[in-house]
Amino acid sequence: MTLWIVRIFFLGLCVMGGYAVSQVHPGLISSGGQGMIVGFGLGGLLIAIDEMLKGFSLRAFSAMTFGLMLGSIMAWLIDTSQLFNYATDNTRWIIRLTLFIAFGYIGIILAMRSNKDYFSLIIPYVRFTSESRPDNSLVLDTSAIIDGRVVDFNELNLLEGLIVVPRFVLKELQAIADSPDPTRPARGRRGLEMLNRIQRNTRNTVKIHENNFSDETEVDAKLVRLTRMLKGKLFTNDYNLGKVAEIQSVPCVNISELMMKMKPAILPGERFSLRLAREGLDKGQGVGYLNDGTMAVVNHAQNLIGQQVTVEVSSLHQTGGGIIVFAELKNGAPPAPA
Prior knowledge:
Layout: H1 2-24, H2 32-52, H3 58-79, H4 89-113, E1 137-140, H5 142-147, H6 149-155, E2 162-166, H7 167-177, H8 185-200, E3 206-209, H9 219-230, E4 233-236, H10 239-247, E5 252-254, H11 255-261, E6 271-279, E7 286-289, E8 295-299, E9 308-319, E10 322-329
Parallel strand pairs: 1-2, 1-4, 2-3, 4-5, 8-10
Antiparallel strand pairs: 6-7, 6-9, 7-8, 9-10
């Protein structure tokens, strides 16, 4: 909204500037109304160009300017050489125009394709590298911050890059913490505490990103757009957000899926000790849970609920929520830790 206020103010200045020019130079613009129309058209054109370049970063603009300068220097060197001395004035003008356009375009393309961390320009085989920290951005959403496991990743030095927390995510955490719903404030306070832990850790720099994308209404759309703009990676626990990011070719890490992949493999025939917690759906079954939360269904164990038993894995069943282990009692086997 603030950006559009600035644009409307600029458009008004252009209209007034066109009117002023018509009064100072009546020979250039015949009437005040015509001057206002010219000013409005010029301002609208500049705003349209600004809207088209909204995804264009300052780094890309700097690279483009640098490439244009190098291309122009090369074109000037060729133009001032003795290659075209015998050409007529009209032909020389066409050659000069072609040189500057061609080398300017080639310089811009090469500069924008070059790696942003170094330039091997003047001295061949000499590379100037940046000694600063990696600038890959790790964008955190609300669910990832509240979950807290990303804090453990950071403390174990498993994350490398700039941790980005958007301002609208911080506002969402504050809204959850201040919610009148009795089940939500605890989640919001946990998220703020996890964020404080991330900021206290000096392994990675934490940046609060101020871009709000006022033209977007959904937080998920803002997160995907910000991650794409920063060319970073989105960390979330939201399955649907991860799929939306994947469809739009935005790198995304689902923390829950990552932890599922890191679980120790359980194979048929493996034996372990398990405490039965409740009855199963089928008659005679007992249900227990492994340390990582995986549910284990034990046949013929209903009368042993509440006891520690030794079981042997008979089969595994993959579901949308994870793996269910089906096992048989092996009370004669020595117990092993789950």
